[in-house]
Amino acid sequence: MFRGTDIAIDLGTATVLVYVRGKGIVLKEPSVVAIDKRSNKVLAVGEEARRMMGRTPGDITVVRPLRQGVIHDYEVTEKMLRYFLGKVCGKSMFFKPRVMVCVPSGVTEVEKKAVIDATQQAGARKTYTIEEPLAAAIGAGLDITKPSGSLVVDIGGGTTDIAVISLGGIVISTSIKVAGDNFDDAIVRYVKKKYQVLIGERTAEEIKINVGAAYKREPVAEIEIRGRSLLTGLPKNVTVNSDEMVDALAEPVFQIGEAIHGVLEKTPPELAADISDKGIILTGGGSLLYGLDKYLQDRLRVPVNIADDPVSCVVLGTGKALDNLETLEKYRLLSKISK
Q1: Quick check: bond before 219 cis, omega within 30?
Q2: CA distance linking residue 172 with residue 186, whole number of Å
Q3: Domain 6-31+66-134+315-336: CATH class, spelled out
Q4: CATH domain 180-250 topology
Q5: What angle do helix axes 201-211 and 180-195 make, rounded to 10 degrees?
Q6: In angstroms, rounded to a whole number, what is the distance separating the alpha carbons of residues 17 and 26?
Q7: For 142-178+253-307, CATH number?
Q8: How is the chain split into domains, by residue range?
Q9: pLDDT interval class at 328 (50, 70, 90)
Q10: Residue 56, helix vs strand vs coil
Q11: DSSP, residue by residue, 204-215
Q12: Over 60: is that where the pLDDT of 13 sits?
């Protein structure tokens, strides 16, 4: 148990990361919960629940309570948060922690309140929220207080958040519901259409990680996967390669490029010049898709850089923000954070 604990949470559609002040990142688990339908009791959370996906009997359901960056199932989200906070702080949680949670830049007040309420119900003493692009910028090591424009693109599981940041504030931003989950869906559709083979979410993710590509790979990478033939109903092995994945992922990759282009078009000229010099910063797990940085650089004609440890940028930035509430208030950034 940590007395007076301060905790930062990246409540992602695909993954939850938890940062504890003075200790760093202490938890990284899938945003997945297994529930007994008859008793409504939670059977497993996180990695243990993810391993059950697609393998459960009829009376057990495996759910992802967050969709496209926001809470889809409030009750299950609250149980998941309670489990993770208990795992981090100890089951008794005698000293309730202060918690800061990141939210997408396009989140509504109702969606933000759902996050705050769920966190409070899960055992937080006081809850703050911070917008994901701001947290990602801090986590990527950018000095957000300077009068200089930075363009941050955070590609998570459910949303892609794009924001131009200057003088500690978000000048212009957008959030689109196209991200890592859409990459998986596109792969499922492609394999189904081309090979008449049905694959699950976990297999699609495996393909994405191993041979997924937004830009031609040299040499071509390939992977053998197993699914169910739609023609025979029997298991079938097929081999897919990175060239096929460029085609499969073309639509969601194009949509992300379009959204960034749209933000650049609305960016004031002075800040656009800063971005042209410094480049675009990519964060989030989706930024690890092979060749995505090259694709965006070719299309937008602006340097594109992937942050160091892009998966952890948001939670690290959220933790730093919680560590520096006084500094944020000094620079009038506390308006970006809601209690």
Answers
A1: yes
A2: 29
A3: alpha beta
A4: Actin; Chain A, domain 4 (3.90.640)
A5: 100
A6: 8
A7: 3.30.420.40
A8: 6-31+66-134+315-336, 142-178+253-307, 180-250
A9: low
A10: coil
A11: HHHHHHHH-BSS
A12: yes
